[in-house]
């Protein structure tokens, strides 16, 4: 018994007429009769009573008609589900993000993605860049939103990364510090202030990016604290422990006790979308990354309007 035979049988059982059933199936009547005969011999049960005037169902035929309808409906449902999955309309997506993405692209990207892929289960995980790189490589995450470049020694050739958003780096200082009131602060000036920094193992791209600010100086910054979250860094700054270099979007978090000062030369930091080179659900992942780009474009447009 195969699916084709079940479809043939259901057509005959519904029409109770081989000619009409053949028209419905877009085939000629003789092959249809042959297939029904094969089905009856295969299962060893007579399904139809035939006469020159009419076709009727046996008790076994009525039972098979009901079961076959359910089976065929289930099969069509599975086909629809698989087409939706292939087209990125269903399934699930596990996405990681750095906490600073909360204040830039993440709210808009979640809204856009859920409006376009309502049947896709979106699972979000706040993680550092290093944690996301590891989980994407392990297959636990489909996509990650990390900060700054993915180190080659960490990812090898297994990841694809693309820039989705760029913003300026700023220095956060206690509002009481003499440099809190300058128009911009130079790396040389920052060298003289204790610095709250971040672990490279968890934020490799960002730590390397901040390091380039001081690369041309003879002295290295004096790091007094190493923290994981920018909220923790801000707490140390507010307590007067030192300064910290953070993305400009941190302005949305700082209390009145902290001054945000642009860095000379306007160095920038970038959010990148990372994914496996061979994603398990390529269509859904591509949709999420498209939404990321659109969310970033909307932020840039709002910024231009505000500055006009």
TrEMBL record:
InterPro entries linked to this entry: LysR_HTH_N, LysR_subst-bd, WH-like_DNA-bd_sf, WH_DNA-bd_sf
Pfam family, one: HTH_1
Keyword vocabulary terms for this entry: DNA-binding, Transcription, Transcription regulation
Gene3D superfamilies cross-referenced by the UniProt entry: Periplasmic binding protein-like II, Winged helix-like DNA-binding domain superfamily/Winged helix DNA-binding domain
Record-annotated HTH lysR-type domain positions: 1-58
Homology family: Belongs to the LysR transcriptional regulatory family.
Name the record gives this protein: LysR family transcriptional regulator
Protein species of origin: Microbacterium pullorum
């Amino acid at each position: 018994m195969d699916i084709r035979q079940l479809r043939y049988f259901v057509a005959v059982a519904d029409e109770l007429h081989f000619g009409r059933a053949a028209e419905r199936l877009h085939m000629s009547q003789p092959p249809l009769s042959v297939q029904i005969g094969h089905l009856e011999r295969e299962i060893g049960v007579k399904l139809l009573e035939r006469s020159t005037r009419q076709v009727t169902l046996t008790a076994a035929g009525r039972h098979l008609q009901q079961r076959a309808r359910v089976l065929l409906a289930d099969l069509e449902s599975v086909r629809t589900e698989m087409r939706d999955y292939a087209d990125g309309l269903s399934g699930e997506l596990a996405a990681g993000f750095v906490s600073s993405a909360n204040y830039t692209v993440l709210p808009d990207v979640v809204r856009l993605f859920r409006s376009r892929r309502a049947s896709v289960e979106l699972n979000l995980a706040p993680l550092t860049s290093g944690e996301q790189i590891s989980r994407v490589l392990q297959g636990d995450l489909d996509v990650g939103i990390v900060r700054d470049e993915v180190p080659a020694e960490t990812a090898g050739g297994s990841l694809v990364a693309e820039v989705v958003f760029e913003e300026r780096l700023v220095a956060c200082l206690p509002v009481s510090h003499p440099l809190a009131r300058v128009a911009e602060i130079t790396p040389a000036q920052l060298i003289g202030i204790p610095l709250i920094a971040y672990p490279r193992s968890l934020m490799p791209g960002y730590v390397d990016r901040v390091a380039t600010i001081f690369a041309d100086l003879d002295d290295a910054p004096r790091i007094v604290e190493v923290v994981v979250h920018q909220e923790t860094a801000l707490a140390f700054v507010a307590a007067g422990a030192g300064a910290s270099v953070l993305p400009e979007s941190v302005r949305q978090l700082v209390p009145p006790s902290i001054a945000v000062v642009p860095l000379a030369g306007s160095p920038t930091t970038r959010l990148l979308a990372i994914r496996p080179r061979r994603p398990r659900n390529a269509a859904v992942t591509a949709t999420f990354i498209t939404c990321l780009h659109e969310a970033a474009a909307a932020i840039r447009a709002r910024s231009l309007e505000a500055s006009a």
